Amino acid sequence: FTLGVKEANADAVVKVVWTNTWYDPAKEKEAAQGLLDSGVDVIAQHQDTPGPQQAAEEAGVYAVGYNTNMRAFAPEANLTSAVWNWGPYYVNAVKSVIDGTFVSTQYWGGLEDGIVDIAPISDKVPADMVAQVEAKKAAIIDGSFDVFAGPIKDQDGNIKVAEGSSMTDGELLSMDWFVEGVEGVIPK
Q: Sheet harboring 116-118: ordered strands across?
């Protein structure tokens, strides 16, 4: 998320607040309100309830949702949402079980598989920015752009991914650091 934010606005800062829960609408909205009270101008989330979107809507700031299209909960605030569609994976998995070819593996589906996508982008987003997002999405799908290709620095300015290198799935799975531009601490 932050890598994309920084590409759009090199001076942007992403503030992270942990709720230590996956589903607690009141706590999620409270966390968003705390960020708003600190002066943030966009709310993003990595939890499933509409609480953060609603806090943004009430405060008159923009928001990016998570897991499903959240525009219905914040029609003026929501710019888009990261969305997942596990249907194609489940259909293929069930078919492979039925035909006896199922093999248990780690699955890393993405944009190219239709598992990950973004919800329709709000008309509040300028057309040139929408074009940039769509171009980047197409480049990820066709393999000409790797989100996690170096150089990437951590929040302390240390090189974590060198120029010419890219993070592996295993490294992404065990990532325990924030990229440059994030303010926050990962709980121990």
A: 42-44, 62-67, 78-84, 116-118
